[in-house]
Amino acid sequence: MDADTVLRDFDAGRARGLARAISWAESGRGADLVRHVYPRAGHALTIGLTGPPGVGKSTLSSGLVRKARSLGKTVGVISVDPSSPFSHGALLGDRIRLNEHFVDPDVFIRSMASRGHLGGVSGATADTILLMDAFGLEMILIETVGVGQSEIEIAELAQTTLVALQPGSGDSIQVLKAGIMEIADVFVVNKADHPMANMMRREIRGMMEMLDFKGWVPELVMTQALSGEGIDDLWRAIEAHRAYLNETGEIVSKRREAFTHQVRQLVLGRLQERLDDDLQARLSTDLDPYAAADALLQGWR
Amino acid sequence: MDADTVLRDFDAGRARGLARAISWAESGRGADLVRHVYPRAGHALTIGLTGPPGVGKSTLSSGLVRKARSLGKTVGVISVDPSSPFSHGALLGDRIRLNEHFVDPDVFIRSMASRGHLGGVSGATADTILLMDAFGLEMILIETVGVGQSEIEIAELAQTTLVALQPGSGDSIQVLKAGIMEIADVFVVNKADHPMANMMRREIRGMMEMLDFKGWVPELVMTQALSGEGIDDLWRAIEAHRAYLNETGEIVSKRREAFTHQVRQLVLGRLQERLDDDLQARLSTDLDPYAAADALLQGWR
């Protein structure tokens, strides 16, 4: 299929045009398409959802998609697979929970592997967000397992970041240590019927009290995604954050952040290609690694 | 402490000299030390050990350390934490299994986080291997959880790569799909008393038959690391691989590979710093991301 056909389908609002455009972006051939549709992007509500394996992210996603659909919004879902070779089985089980939406033409679901992409979530994911946005999808949900840098990156790409936590898992202590406190716009304690759920809520509240928030103070929502309980509360928290971003004008810096992140990954990718050529052509093995690095860097700018 | 003191301790074979040198490397101040001791490195046997969480890597490590010590070898162990904020609890449990060796002055154990380092395992880990090697440790074991790119990177840094698998986990199918077959010099089916252990052995053998190995054919070893069963077989497999590397001269390209990998990470780190300065100073947000990337790249060579 040629670029004109893809673009015609895309412009006509046909899902296969979007699907093809994303595939091209994934294989590194998306530049022209992205450039062409870029001026149309910038209207979608982008939500990142991260958390440990097993916390119920896909069930939460499914609940949010259902909510958005009930409000008549078109939806895109991007499920980013972690790059571990050892966990696909579990993730496949997760993915199935989204299948009630597979037949809805106004929900576009796409999963992608972070393996091979510099820095995990980025690269093709940023292109995919942009393409879905330009396609006219109103809400874009980016779901990723919190391994590697992905939970930090998702916060750079999304306007609102949800961090889902598991009661009784010890997650809350880790959250504070790992700098997750800084990226969460909304904490979601899922499986709220768990005996430790209230204790986790108190822990998170306690941690928040110790911190001095400038601007937005993260919301804390209790959900039981399987039964749908708390999804309305979660939606309200998302809307409240969006209202905050718009009223304060922070939405502009959020968009700029996502843009900067994408450009950074693009440039890094190109620099890596050049570097790999250089390593082939003129790596001196007579030096220690630091001297060899210095030698290679001479000639770069 | 100044560099002269660290170096004097290091040269005198005092563990605190090595410990301090590694800490400097971790905080990015290791260049001078590494350059100074580099000529002394290149003698250690480096072994990478990767596999899914829960497979028993630390118990395997502990068994290998015990074996090496019984042969009178000095040992370094590097445990690379995955960068997930959500799994430290589990890993700490793992780490404890190494504690029988903490009091042995000829075993130097160090754990480090991959978070923050470009590409996971690399960076400080490469420096640490080099420092331990130059310090005179004869066997260096690098242990990492198979998340992110770490399982691939470990194979670039280590001369012999062990991939540990869990019977009954579906791991064997993933191994083939994820390109792990290409990095494993030795497969270790741990928990050999598991009812599915023999089935997993057959699966891996079957997969190996389908592939056409040039040179080394991966060994497959069954272990019960907790009881120590199979550790002697594993040691023999490691020695066989080492003999193969030496006889064929492949050890030279293995060393070159590790060197190239380290230089690559060093250069990438410096390029990222420059790029971040550039992004601050002259990122145009009037363009689409690809055009903005092109604009930034002008002026880079």
CATH-defined fold name of chain A:
Rossmann fold
Could you give the order of strands across the largest sheet of chain A?
3-2-4-1-5-6-7
- CATH H-level homologous superfamily name of chain A: P-loop containing nucleotide triphosphate hydrolases
Structural class of the helices, strands and pairings of chain A? alpha/beta
Treating each run of at least 4 consecutive H or I residues as one helix, how many helices of chain A?
12
Number of domains of chain A: 1
Major beta sheet summary of chain A:
7 strands, parallel
Rg of chain A, Cα atoms, Å = 21 Å
CATH top level of chain A is Alpha Beta
Number of strands of chain A: 7
Question: What sort of overall outline of chain A do the alpha carbons produce when their principal axes are compared?
Answer: globular
Rounded average pLDDT of chain A: 84
Q: Roughly what percent helix of chain A?
A: 40-55%
Low-confidence stretches of chain A: 87-94, 116-120
Strand content of chain A: 5-15%
Order of helices and strands of chain A: HHHEHEHEHEHEHEHEHHH
Assign the CATH architecture of chain A: 3-Layer(aba) Sandwich
Oligomer: homodimer
Largest interface: A-B, 63 and 63 residues
N- to C-terminal distance of chain A: 40 Å
Keywords:
alpha/beta, Rossmann fold
Q: Care to describe what's here?
A:
The structure is a homodimer of 301-residue chains. Helix content of chain A is 50%, strand content 14%. With 301 residues, chain A is an alpha/beta fold. Chain A has a single domain (40-251), classed as Rossmann fold (3-Layer(aba) Sandwich), CATH 3.40.50.300. The first copy, chain A, has a 7-stranded parallel sheet, sandwiched between helices. In chain A, helix 2 (15-26) packs antiparallel against helix 6 (124-135) and helix 10 (231-248) packs across helix 11. At the A-B interface, helix 3, helix 8, helix 11 and helix 12 of A face helix 3, helix 8, helix 11 and helix 12 of B.
